[in-house]
Design brief:
The chain is mainly α and about 120 residues long. The chain folds into two domains: about 60 residues, Winged helix-like DNA-binding domain superfamily/Winged helix DNA-binding domain (Arc Repressor Mutant, subunit A, Orthogonal Bundle), CATH 1.10.10; about 50 residues. About 65% of the residues lie in helices and about 10% in strands. The protein has six helices and three strands, in the order αβααββααα. The protein has a three-stranded antiparallel sheet. About 15% of the residues are buried.
């Protein structure tokens, strides 16, 4: 599960699974058809890719997650910071802060997070 990147369509499809699990593969294909106008084969192809990445499983026609949405996005964020900023969270925050000023509330929330991580 080293590559956690998803294209936008895959991420939206994953959200359907997380929002409806456990869900039958047939129902999932129907939901994808309604939301994206996908054919059943497209939904199954995307599902297969996400299962191969270790995010979901399809056992006996029932699709469930192997990784929660929160865990996925936490790992995805870690991977992004590692790749784009050499793993440096301060470098990421500095880059983020150069284009957008943080509000006092956001700064206070970050301080609270840092304090809770000090253990």
């Amino acid at each position: 599960m080293s590559d956690l990147r998803m294209v936008t369509a895959e991420a939206k499809f994953a959200d359907i699974i997380w929002d409806n699990e456990p869900v039958s593969s047939g129902e999932l294909a129907k939901l994808a058809g309604q939301k994206f106008q996908w054919k059943k084969t497209t939904a199954f192809t995307v599902l297969k890719r996400l299962c191969e990445r270790g995010l979901f499983q399809n056992q006996n026609g029932t699709v469930t997650s192997l990784l929660s949405r929160e865990a996925f996005y936490a790992r995805h964020s870690e991977q992004y910071v590692e790749e784009a900023f050499g793993g440096s969270l301060p470098a990421f925050l500095a880059a983020f802060g150069t284009r957008r000023k943080l509000s006092d509330k956001e700064i206070e929330e970050i301080h609270k997070m840092i304090d809770s991580m000090r253990g």
